[in-house]
Amino acid sequence: MSGTWTLPDDLTLPKLPDDHPGAGAPIPSHWSKCFGCGDDQPAGMAMQFTFGEGLEITGMLDVANRYQGGPGFIHGGILSTAFDEAQGMACMVLRRPVVTGHLQIDFAKPIPLGSVLELRARIDGTVRRKVYTSAEARIVEGPFADPDVVVATSRGLFLTVGAQHFDRAKDFVDGIPRSPHGTSSV
Ligand SMILES: CCCCCCCCCCCC(=O)SCCNC(=O)CCNC(=O)[C@H](O)C(C)(C)COP(=O)(O)OP(=O)(O)OC[C@H]1O[C@@H](n2cnc3c(N)ncnc32)[C@H](O)[C@@H]1OP(=O)(O)O
Hints:
Elements: E1 26-27, E2 48-51, E3 56-62, H1 76-90, E4 98-107, E5 116-127, E6 130-141, E7 150-160, H2 163-167
Antiparallel strand pairs: 1-2, 2-3, 3-5, 4-7, 5-6, 6-7
Family: Belongs to the THEM4/THEM5 thioesterase family.
InterPro entries: HotDog_dom_sf, THEM4/THEM5_acyl-CoA_thioest, Thioestr_dom
Subcellular location: Cell projection, Ruffle membrane; Cytoplasm; Membrane
């Protein structure tokens, strides 16, 4: 990680909920129309997530041809979206809606189309409404696959928000909201 990112001294680690389903359990999409994880979003990235050990979660992304930036490689914005989604999903254990306040990515290695990316993300701690997260990506299938090589890292600050955050957009929602985890109040 070469970016600048300082964790505050007064971080608190959240406790896992008593009914946490445990490592390996799938994490449902937080919103079926979400570009990152929605299962009713044909234009989206359809990322799949599972709980890991403790506060960690794992997300998978198939790097489709339509995600091309430079010839043959993933677009940096797509990779940033994947991190945003993964780190947001890691916040699910809080059982409160979050939005991204700040995200910073280090693009360490090129990622070719046809890769399967594994993103591991976690909460590093919280301070009031601020949720500090981190994640890293590895290519686990495809031409450059090497599970020992980190190809990108990310740090992100998420903020817990109330229902009023989403109320402001209720007239623009595309689809019938399904919000099992409270990310949408509409
Ligand atoms: C079950 C769940 C599943 C959850 C699963 C969710 C998965 C979702 C994945 C996708 C997530 C997205 O892309 S969300 C879409 C992209 N993001 C957005 O649209 C957010 C747009 N921005 C905003 O709405 C706003 O700026 C907020 C909500 C982020 C913050 O505004 P606010 O609520 O008024 O908070 P505010 O009082 O200003 O700040 C509170 C504290 O945070 C700090 N703070 C605020 N913004 C920043 C910042 N960018 N960088 C540093 N620090 C910041 C302040 O200094 C303050 O610290 P202190 O004084 O306490 O020390």
